[in-house]
Amino acid sequence: MTGRHRETELARRSRARGLAAGRSLPQIADEIFELCGPQFGTTRIKAHRLAHGIALADVIEQVRALFERDGKPVPGIGETLLSAYESGLKRPGPEYLHYLCTVYRVEPAALGYEGPCICGNGHRAPGAGRSDAAQEPTPELVPRQREPRTWPTGSDAPGDGGEEDENVLRRTLLQLLAVTGAGAVIEPETHSRVFGAVENIRRRLDETLVSGTVSAAMLDQWEEATKGFGRQYMKTPPLQLLCDVLLELSSVRRAMAHRQPVDLQRRLCQMTAQLSGLSGMIMLNLGDHRLARSFFRTARTAADETEDRALRAWVIARESLVPLYYGDPKEALNLARQSRALAGQTPCPAQAMAPIVEARAIAMQSGSTGRKEAVDQAKRALSRARAAFTQMSSDDQQDLAFGYTERQLYFHEGDALVRLGETIEADYILQKALSQYGPSDWLDPTLIRFDRARCKLIEGEIEEAARMALETWKELEDAYRTDIVVRRANDLIRQAEKAASGSRIPVLEELKDAVKARATRAEA
């Protein structure tokens, strides 16, 4: 008899004896966990299914029925995903966890997961008894979920990128999801804990990369999730998206901790590079350029393992935005040229992105190189970017995070032209870019509006520039007023005050007070 069949047989006997003795299903699940866990690595969530005596397909149908009952679209959950939950390879998201708790009529702790359910209500079945782990006087903060595998590169100890760091992200994600809309405000001390957990998880990734078996179906799901995060990049509050991305990244890391077949290992490295690069992009938006650079270094390490020149070039092109936004155009120019050289003649996003960064960096240095020379160099780089864009695949032209879209091309081209003082051409191109963004997109449209305000400022219309910037600021909810937006607003305020030469402009004062009030709240 195989281990799997032996596990099922022992669970069946335990269930029969428990029902005969009048014990509740949660009590029987506890007994199965204690009996089968040491021998077969049976997790708490799997013990509950075995206690109910049902198959994976039965649980899936119940979850789908509950989604239909609540008027929600039927989810794509399948046996592969549920099996990954039961093996400990993947953790259910807040919504799936809620419905699994509903199916088994227990709290998350009974299934081996810390914290309350996202719904804020109890799921415990009447008369469940003390065996429900959620009813113990002192529930475990770290799930007792048993892993059938061991880690070859150290333990997942708190503070070391393991379960406790993931719990920090889960608690933050629950807090963000519990607030309607995008108005969640995270306390400064919570920011510190979250960023500490983010750094620990990233460090564990580095350890794993230099230290694998997972199914092809699970890899397909992870790759689809990675694409989904890319689609959410412009629409989701950055801190919320960061928590989701890092939890997914932790699941990928666990799989990478074991040597996999070469083709699967390459796919895992590709996802790690993409998710780490996306984390770096989010950290840049949140204002932590040190962590952003750390994530891009991790992404480089993973991309190098894939031997995919296009992916490696994409990571470096994205990394070049860190010095570009934080005042080091020379380094940005150097990284952009590295990216372009690595991309070579291969049609890919970096082949278009890198020349754009070059143009923006050249424009930032136009004061030292001479305006005419800077304009000529920048426009040649923009021409290369447009030519490369036409060679990209349609999929890459529609991917905001891992590809490069036409609206991003217009935005970045317009930004370079603003810095060069070519305001008429810049404003025309920025308007074209803005027309292609939807109402739920936030970051690029916000920066585009600030660039258009700068056009007015350069043309001497100080009051109109301040009015446009203030209107843009007021339209943003607090969760979207990230460091990169605050820096852009402060840059415009400084330039407007310099242009005003001491004259008092009421709308400029109002903008300055609004931005200052946000900084005061963040420091409180």
Primary descriptors:
single chain; 524 residues; mainly alpha; 25 helices
Number of helical elements: 25
Our Rg estimate from Cα atoms comes to 26 Å
Question: Can you tell me the overall shape?
Answer: elongated
Helical residues, percent: 55-70%
Average residue pLDDT? 83
Class based on secondary structure composition and strand pairing? mainly alpha
Low-confidence stretches: 127-161
Sheet bearing the most strands, described?
none
Measured by DSSP, the beta-strand proportion falls in under 5%
Distance N to C terminus: 63 Å
Secondary-structure element pattern, one letter each: HHHHHHHHHHHHHHHHHHHHHHHHH
Number of strands: 0
Summarize this, please?
With 524 residues, the protein is an all-alpha fold. The chain has 25 helices and no strands.
Outline the fold blueprint.
Layout: H1 3-20, H2 25-40, H3 44-52, H4 56-69, H5 79-87, H6 94-104, H7 163-177, H8 188-210, H9 216-232, H10 238-256, H11 262-286, H12 289-306, H13 309-319, H14 321-325, H15 329-343, H16 349-364, H17 366-369, H18 371-391, H19 394-398, H20 406-419, H21 423-434, H22 443-458, H23 462-475, H24 483-500, H25 506-523
Helix pairs in contact: 1-2, 1-3, 2-3, 4-6, 7-8, 7-10, 8-10, 8-12, 9-10, 9-11, 10-11, 11-12, 11-13, 12-13, 13-15, 13-16, 15-16, 16-18, 16-20, 18-20, 20-21, 20-22, 21-22, 22-23, 22-24, 23-24, 23-25, 24-25
Commentary on this structure:
- The protein has 524 residues and is mostly helical.
- The protein has 25 helices and no strands.
- Helix 1 packs antiparallel against helix 2 and helix 23 packs antiparallel against helix 24.
- 46% of the residues are buried.
